[in-house]
Amino acid sequence: MTQREPQRGKPASGIEAKGRRRRAFSSFAAAEKWLDERVNFERTRHQRIDPAVFKLDRMRALMAALGDPQSTMPIVHIAGSKGKGSVCEMLSSCLGANGYACGVYTSPHLVSVQERIRLGHEPVGEAAFARLLGLVRDAAEGLPAKLGAATYFECVTALGFLYFAEQAVDAAVVEVGLGGRLDSTNIITPVVCGIAEIQREHTAILGDTLELIAAEKAGIMKSGVPCLTVPQTDGVIGVFEKAAETVGASLLVLGREVEYTKRFESAHAMGPHTRICVTTGDLVFEHLPVPFEGEHQAENCGLALAILHQLTKLGFECSERGVAKGLASARRNGRLERVWDKPRIIIDGAHTGESIRRLINAIGAHVRCDSMVVIFGCAADKDVDTMLEEIGRGADKVIFTKASGNPRAQDPHELQRRFEEVHGKMSQVEPTLKDAINTAARAVQRDDLICVTGSFVLAGEAKGLLEAKRRGLAAAGV
Predict the structure, then answer these.
(1) Which helix (DSSP H) or strand (DSSP E) does residue 117 occupy?
(2) Can you give the residue ranges of every domain in the chain?
């Protein structure tokens, strides 16, 4: 496929007509207000959600009313428990660096809902968001009552496909929101799909074993569409193999059908980092540095490159130089992201016991510090005790708090009580994240580190607070 200049700002065929737009939102704030009034499962305790509510009938009807814009572009579909967002970031950045206009749809967001829908690294603008959400609203309100009201995630997903069609993207990289089989994104027929690592998560909805969770993720497989995955447990691979055979998809596993090696090294220019080699057929990526810290990111990077090779079979042209440039410019977006310098503050959206363990290991391997203060808050429906055990393994001091306005948040006093049952380290509670950051900042020295983690909601709130502080300092001329 030869790189082309996409036609910006032109509506995709059929969108305006089938959307039957009656009235526009007066502003982005008005559009966001309407959106926030939709049912949002991301902010609902999963024990209170009946899994039967997850159906695709309404999403299919909504997209049909909008002219099915998702059918106008090649799409890569990415699922998984952990790492799927990283795969999306690396893959889309590589496509962009090779000259392709790439739409990116991910969730959740850190600071603004606009982050979920991007053209390359650039989020959808406020005016386009408000205009397209008006189309989505009108289409949603015209659906048969028996289908029920469109949810927050369904509306944002529909908006994303509208935007990508309007921008005439060369390809779109779409991250699954929850599960896979019944996720709102699963109304697409992708050209390639990928599944990152499977972990125990959302057990109240997806099932309480890795195999049950894997079966839900495998629901994104489509007939004739190659599906790639990272090394998994034998049970998970068995589930994937059965699902692929059932639907008629080919399954390729990193390190099995796809030749893959990695090595950890330390160089003066880059410091400690991992390099990988991926060979698939006639395409060879040799000794490329993984852009994100953590040993697990090597497999995520390998998966992104293996998917990229499948795209070259469809005509996409990707040079190793362009891929290396794309990896180097991939956005962290809440993955060991440094958001403040003095004191050093990083945020990470780790929200499972295994991801906290990997976060602590990555900090130990890649970040030099005398001591580390962890600001921690998580959802009540997580494996809290395992997360606390891993936090205690790496933190010198822990400050418990919670994200504001999140009904899923665990009481920080309960977190502290459970932490003290297994660790004798210093800990305290602050009622708000802002208080926690200020307390940590007063306690650390120049070579210390503050890490905010436990959920994407908490990490996002921290980033928003610090961005607001930075804007205030700039306005004051400091």
Answers:
(1) strand 117-119
(2) 15-328, 337-475
Chain mean pLDDT for the chain: 91
Q: What is the reported pLDDT for 18?
A: 47
Contact 323, 308 (CB under 8 A): yes
For the chain, how far is it from start to end, CA to CA, in angstroms? 49
Q: List C-alpha distances in Å: 225 to 74, 164, 230, 244.
A: 12, 21, 17, 9
Query: Pairing state of beta strands 283-289 and 271-280?
Result: antiparallel
Q: Which two tokens stand for residue 254?
A: 């990193």
Question: Per-residue pLDDT tens for 261-272?
Answer: 999 887 766 777
Query: Among positive and negative, which fits the CA dihedral 201, 409, 347, 130?
Result: positive
- C-alpha 340/C-alpha 165 separation (Å) is 37
Topology of the domain comprising 337-475: Protein-Tyrosine Phosphatase; Chain A (3.90.190)
The predicted pLDDT at position 50 comes to 57
Does 3.90.380.10 match the CATH number of domain 15-328?
Answer: no
Contact in structure between 106 and 460 (CB atoms under 8 Å): no
Place of tokens 């599960």: 179
Cα distance between residue 56 and residue 62, in whole Å = 10
Taking the CB of residue 121, how many other CB atoms lie within 10 A of it?
15
pTM for this entry: 0.91
| pLDDT tens-place string over residues 31-59 | 999 999 999 877 765 555 555 567 899 99
